[in-house]
């Protein structure tokens, strides 16, 4: 059996993320990937049995990296405002430093691959941050609410700002750059909306 060539695997994974992010899932194939990486399709099949497993494994690996970055310095026992601010800073930093990775996740989010990716990410988030909202509710910092409502209020404003930043413009075509001041101001409105 041929030994694993980690540098080849890394090149395959990076190029797959790039191609899916930039060209979409519908234009992605093993032969095209092999040409782009400069290997034969047979080399890719040594490491991945098929295209679906390649995409699934990459999505899980990248999703776990994202979770680790988002939860850096975070503890589920932090007070609500402090813990949410750390998540905001980490999420913004990760998304802005990994724009291609964010576009890769967007492609998967609207595909059949999302289930395995969300399962892996969900488990990791539940393990490390699962008690954060429950603890804030128990301490009387926020009201109990459906998770979808919480997420929409807590994080959707941040991701709108990140998207404006990525595009370089906001509403009406105005130039936009996300600054710490804008992020902190938006965060203050989110905190007012969520805290009792």
TrEMBL record:
<dbReference type="GO" id="GO:0003677">
    <property type="term" value="F:DNA binding"/>
</dbReference>
<feature type="DNA-binding region" description="H-T-H motif">
    <location>
        <begin position="29"/>
        <end position="48"/>
    </location>
</feature>
<feature type="domain" description="HTH tetR-type">
    <location>
        <begin position="6"/>
        <end position="66"/>
    </location>
</feature>
<dbReference type="InterPro" id="IPR050624">
    <property type="entry name" value="HTH-type_Tx_Regulator"/>
</dbReference>
<dbReference type="InterPro" id="IPR009057">
    <property type="entry name" value="Homeodomain-like_sf"/>
</dbReference>
<protein>
    <submittedName>
        <fullName>TetR family transcriptional regulator</fullName>
    </submittedName>
</protein>
<dbReference type="Pfam" id="PF00440">
    <property type="entry name" value="TetR_N"/>
</dbReference>
<keyword id="KW-0238">DNA-binding</keyword>
<dbReference type="InterPro" id="IPR001647">
    <property type="entry name" value="HTH_TetR"/>
</dbReference>
């Amino acid at each position: 059996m041929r030994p694993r060539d980690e540098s080849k695997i890394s090149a395959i994974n990076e190029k797959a993320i790039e191609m899916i992010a930039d060209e979409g899932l519908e234009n992605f194939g093993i032969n095209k990937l092999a040409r782009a990486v400069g290997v034969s399709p047979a080399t890719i099949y040594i490491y991945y049995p098929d295209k679906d497993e390649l995409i699934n494994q990459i999505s899980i690996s990248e999703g776990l990296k994202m979770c680790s970055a988002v939860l850096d310095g975070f503890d589920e026992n932090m007070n609500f405002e402090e813990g949410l601010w750390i998540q905001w800073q980490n999420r913004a930093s990760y998304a802005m430093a990994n724009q291609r990775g964010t576009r890769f996740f967007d492609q998967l989010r609207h595909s059949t691959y999302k289930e395995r990716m969300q399962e892996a990410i969900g488990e990791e988030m539940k393990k490390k941050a699962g008690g954060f909202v429950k603890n804030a509710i128990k301490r009387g910092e926020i009201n109990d609410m459906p998770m979808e409502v919480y997420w929409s209020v807590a994080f959707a404003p941040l991701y709108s700002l990140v998207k404006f930043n990525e595009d370089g413009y906001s509403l009406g075509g105005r130039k936009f750059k996300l600054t710490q001041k804008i992020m902190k101001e938006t965060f203050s409105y989110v905190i007012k909306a969520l805290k009792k």
